[in-house]
Amino acid sequence: MNFPENVKYTVNHEWIRLEGDVAFVGITDYAQDQLGDIVFVEVIAEGQMFVQDEVFGSIEAVKTVSDLLMPIEATVLEMNADLEDQPELLNTDPYGKGWIIKVKIVSKTDLDLLMDAAQYRTHIGE
Known about the structure:
CATH architecture: Beta Barrel
Strand order of the largest sheet: 1-2-3-9-8-5
Radius of gyration: 13 Å
């Protein structure tokens, strides 16, 4: 399992990485492992604002469909277009090429409420 130190984690297994004025959001290595082979990703709307834990899309795997929940209050700027043709990037590179959305966050202090890598490891029982 991979637990990068440069991201924050949610109890719902999403991650968020701040880069300047924008942040990238995806699912954790643990989440993709639990879901299995991912075949489709859907994001509700670019340009829309979401509050923390609001559904912003879904992931379809061979065995299940799972909601994607916004880690903090933010506006969706862009969906990763590569996922349309290559949803398996979520399985092979969940913290890199497998990012799901780019967002503009409302407050950087909201990140302080999320887990770091050590806390997330404890959360999943690792």
